[in-house]
C-alpha cells in the first residue's frame, strides 16, 4: 500500500507532487533512475532492480516511496516542510529522515538531510551543544634540533593504487621536511609504529615527541609499540 493512498493533498504538498510530475516528464533524473524508468516502458525486458519500481499517474515509485527528481530546489522544499514549519519544530537529522522517508525517496537522501540540518541557521543559533566545551589550542614549544618533534598524520580513503589507499605523512616540526609512506586507511597505531621504524627511524633516529590529529590515545599506543620494537 503506497504511503499517500487515501490522503487528500492540498496546498504546498499538491504543488510538490505537481513539480515531481513535471520533473519526471523533463527527464530530470539520475542515470540509474532514468534507466529503471526506461525499463518500465519495456515491461518484457525488466531486471530484478527495475521490479522495485512502478509508474503511477506520472509519478515514479521506488519500494512504495515517491521518487523525487534531481532538483535541489524541490528536494529542499520537501525537507523544509518537515523541518522549518512551526509544527515540525526543527527536529534533528534522523527524525527528519523518518518523516521524509514516509512518502519520498531519492539517492543519498540521508546525506542531503544531514547537510541541510547542519547548516540550518536557526538551529545553529538556538540549539545547545551536547558535549563538553572544547579545550583551548596549545602552541608548540620552539625547537632547536631537527627530527626531535614530529607530526604523524594520515590522508585516507584515496583511490586505490598498488593495493594502497592511504598515505602516512611524517613532518619535522623544525625543518618542515616531510616523508610520505604508503599505507592503508584502516592502519592502527601499532601498524603506524612499524612503518615509522622501517621508513623514518632508520634515517633520523629516535624522536622525542609526537603530535597527531588522531589524539593522545593514538600517540600513546604508537610510542609504546615503537619502544617495544626498539627494545627500549
Write up this protein.
This protein folds into 2 domains: 116 residues, Endonuclease III, domain 1; 82 residues, Ribonuclease H-like superfamily/Ribonuclease H (Nucleotidyltransferase, domain 5, 2-Layer Sandwich). By secondary structure, it is of the alpha/beta class. The chain starts with 10 loop residues before the first helix and ends with a helix. A 4-stranded mixed beta sheet has the order 1-2-3-4. A hairpin with a 2-residue loop joins strand 1 and strand 2. The longest helix is centred in the C-terminal third of the chain and has 16 residues. The N terminus is likely disordered. It has 8 helices and 8 strands. The protein is 40% helix and 16% strand.
What is the compact description of this entry?
With 232 residues, this protein is α/β, with parallel strands linked by helices.
Sequence-ordered SSE layout with sheet pairings:
Blueprint: H1 11-25, H2 31-40, E1 53-56, E2 59-62, E3 65-67, H3 72-83, H4 93-101, E4 104-105, H5 109-118, H6 121-126, E5 149-155, E6 166-172, E7 178-183, H7 189-204, E8 209-211, H8 216-230
Parallel strand pairs: 3-4, 5-8
Antiparallel strand pairs: 1-2, 2-3, 5-6, 6-7
Helix pairs in contact: 4-5, 7-8
Amino acid at each position: 500500500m503506497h504511503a499517500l493512498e487515501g490522503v487528500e493533498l492540498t496546498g504546498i504538498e499538491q504543488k510538490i507532487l505537481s513539480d515531481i510530475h513535471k520533473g519526471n516528464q523533463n527527464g530530470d533524473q539520475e542515470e540509474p533512475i532514468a534507466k529503471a524508468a526506461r525499463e518500465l516502458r519495456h515491461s518484457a525486458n525488466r531486471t530484478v532492480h527495475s521490479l522495485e519500481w512502478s509508474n503511477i499517474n506520472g509519478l515514479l515509485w521506488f519500494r512504495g516511496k515517491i521518487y523525487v527528481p534531481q532538483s535541489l530546489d524541490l528536494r529542499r522544499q520537501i525537507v523544509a516542510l518537515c523541518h522549518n514549519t512551526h509544527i515540525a519544530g526543527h527536529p534533528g537529522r534522523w527524525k527528519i529522515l523518518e518523516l521524509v522517508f514516509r512518502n519520498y525517496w531519492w539517492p543519498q537522501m540521508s546525506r542531503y538531510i544531514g547537510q541541510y540540518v547542519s547548516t540550518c541557521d536557526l538551529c545553529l543559533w538556538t540549539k545547545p551543544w551536547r558535549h563538553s566545551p572544547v579545550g583551548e589550542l596549545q602552541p608548540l614549544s620552539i625547537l632547536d634540533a631537527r627530527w626531535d618533534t614530529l607530526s604523524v598524520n594520515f590522508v585516507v580513503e584515496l583511490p586505490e593504487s598498488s593495493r594502497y589507499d592511504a598515505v602516512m605523512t611524517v613532518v619535522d616540526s623544525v625543518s618542515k621536511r616531510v616523508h610520505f609512506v604508503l599505507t592503508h586507511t584502516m592502519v592502527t597505531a601499532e601498524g603506524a609504529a612499524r612503518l615509522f621504524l622501517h621508513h623514518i627511524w632508520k634515517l633520523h633516529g629516535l624522536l622525542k615527541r609526537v603530535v597527531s590529529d588522531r589524539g593522545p590515545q593514538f600517540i600513546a599506543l604508537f610510542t609504546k609499540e615503537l619502544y617495544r620494537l626498539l627494545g627500549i
